[in-house]
């Protein structure tokens, strides 16, 4: 199955905080279900952004980087579109993959790659 590597805490936000756009500098024509691979690199500024959003009371962000799973599959999501403009509060990129139906999955350790990549996850 195709997978897409996303840095934490953004992979967590897709599965737990309603993040409905994945920002990229490249566009895709791919539509369908993909596995979410949580990369090993942690985005500290992204964590701060989520903590600020948390103040609105919409979700509760883990307080420490160690609480985020990294280096493997953490869930799946449908990519339903790729846009260059969006009203979503999560859109900040040149392109945004529009996401629907996030589902957490049991953690499966595997190496990430750039772009979409294949993973044997069952």
Explain what you see:
A six-stranded mixed β-sheet has the order 2-5-4-3-1-6. The mean pLDDT is 94. It has a single domain (2-110), classed as Archaeosine Trna-guanine Transglycosylase, Chain: A, domain 4 (Roll), CATH 2.30.130. 15% of the residues lie in helices and 43% in strands. By secondary structure, it is mostly beta strands. The chain is globular.
Task: Give a concise summary.
By secondary structure, the protein is mainly β.
Key words describing this protein structure:
122 residues, mainly beta, Archaeosine Trna-guanine Transglycosylase, Chain: A, domain 4, six-stranded mixed sheet, 2 helices, 43% strand
Walk me through the topology.
Elements: E1 2-8, H1 10-16, E2 21-24, E3 32-42, H2 44-54, E4 72-83, E5 95-109, E6 116-118
Parallel strand pairs: 1-3
Antiparallel strand pairs: 1-6, 2-5, 3-4, 4-5
Strand content: 35-45%
List low-confidence stretches.
Answer: none
Looking at CATH, which topology would you report? Archaeosine Trna-guanine Transglycosylase, Chain: A, domain 4
Percent of residues in helices comes to 10-25%
Give the tally of structural domains: 1
Shape: globular
Major sheet: size, sense and barrel closure?
6 strands, mixed
Radius of gyration, taken over Cα atoms and rounded to an integer in Å: 14 Å
Structural class: mainly beta
Supply the number of helical segments: 2
Q: Mind telling me the CATH superfamily name?
A: Hypothetical protein
SSE series:
EHEEHEEE
- Please give the order of strands in the largest beta sheet: 2-5-4-3-1-6
CATH class: Mainly Beta
Total DSSP E strands = 6
């Amino acid at each position: 199955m195709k997978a897409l590597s996303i840095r934490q805490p953004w992979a967590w936000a897709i599965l737990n905080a309603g993040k409905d756009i994945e920002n990229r500098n490249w566009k895709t024509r791919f539509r369908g279900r993909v596995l979410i691979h949580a990369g090993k690199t942690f985005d500290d500024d992204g964590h701060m952004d989520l903590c600020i959003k948390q103040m609105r009371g919409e979700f509760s962000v883990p307080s420490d980087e160690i609480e985020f799973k990294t280096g493997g599959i953490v869930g799946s999501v449908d990519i339903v579109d790729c846009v260059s403009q969006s009203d979503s509060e999560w859109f900040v990129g040149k392109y945004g993959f529009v996401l629907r139906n996030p589902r957490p999955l049991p953690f499966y350790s595997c190496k990430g790659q750039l772009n979409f990549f294949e993973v044997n996850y069952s």
